[in-house]
Amino acid sequence: MGSKLEVFAKKNGIKYFLINFSDLNGVQRSKLVPTPAIAEMEDEGAGFAGFATFLDMTPSYPDMFCLPDPNSVIQLPWKKEVAWVPGNLSMNDKFVDQAPRVILSKMIQKAKEAGYVMMGGVEPEFMLISNDGESISDAKDIAGKPCYDQQALMRRYDVISEICDNMISLGWGTYQNDHEDANGQFEMNWDYSDLMTTADRHSFFKFMVKSIAEKHDLRATFMPKPFGHLTGNGCHMHISLWNSKVSKNLFHDEKGELGLSSLGYNFLGGLIKNAIGMCAITNPTVNSYKRLNAPVTNSGATWSPNTVTYGGNNRTHMVRIPGPGRIEFRLADGAANPYLMAAAILASGMDGIENKVDPGKRLDIDMYNESEKAKNAKKLPLYLIDAIREFQRNKPLRSYLGEEFYHAYLKIKNIEWNDYSRSLTQWEKDFTLDC
Ligand SMILES: [Mg+2]
Question: Is residue 101 part of a domain?
Fold first, then answer.
């Protein structure tokens, strides 16, 4: 017998483990640990200096340890002697309450105590671009309406099929791949799972897509709006809530409107109520706000919401009810930290359930062309700083996600905004140098 990871290493020929965590900005950090040292690391964690990452810590802080979760280990399909294992951060023998995976673990536990297990499936869109980041990588991919473009998809067959083969080998239940609505943009779908499995896979997916793209001398980006005239990279989440045995989908009610139960409508009410406060998490960068509220793109639609509304099977709203028993939350983008995004969505939904929040009336209108009909619809924030201020005011998220996270996140995001707002842009020079 050995430790769980030692056994995994022996069975799968693993020589090294990446002990991984995501910081508050979603940057993935790891230590590469040789297998002979893994048992001790599994027990005590891999050491990091927290200040060196995007966490609210100073250089004087003691060692921070990442305790790998052996239940979430993944062998890299493209480098089989290495395994990736996400972990929870601890310091002074206590979990770090501002660490995204810790926050999600605790949020899942809170929902479980109330009798619920959230299931989620994500759709992280990405673009394959040139190595210098200046243009999309396929010079022939210029169609005005490139969604589902067969020719452009097949020109990237080697990359897409390699990623898909990897997902098949990992048993994720992958079922389709396509060219999305922007030139150079793709989406790959796999089965939904419990929230932690989905967050871990979402995190690993980003690592895998970037790695396979690099192997093919390309660059993959999940940046929300890398090109102003093209549709941005969203990250929609399909949501359902199950009983604690995960034997019954509590969102499903044949008699409910569009097959959604009253519990489902309360969860949806929570998303509507907290959407604006959640944006700093689901749309966490300066660039995120160039995807939301964007002018019409080359393809004819942005496919991103600009107001807090919901509809039936209608993609012009922030929340879509695509069929009985589930909802699709279309707000988040490719920059969202997979753990924080999942935790914020669950927290918002739980607030809706706890307070029996009514989501209001469904809007059966085209929000892109008839938005004037939705007179009372709240607008999503225009800039990151507005989103930060809304998060600062949001009590349910503060209470569910915890004080340490609340203060740490505000600090990190305010630094980011200040850094951005103090930098001079070319646009300012172009339009005001001679004023
Ligand atoms: Mg999509």
Answer: no
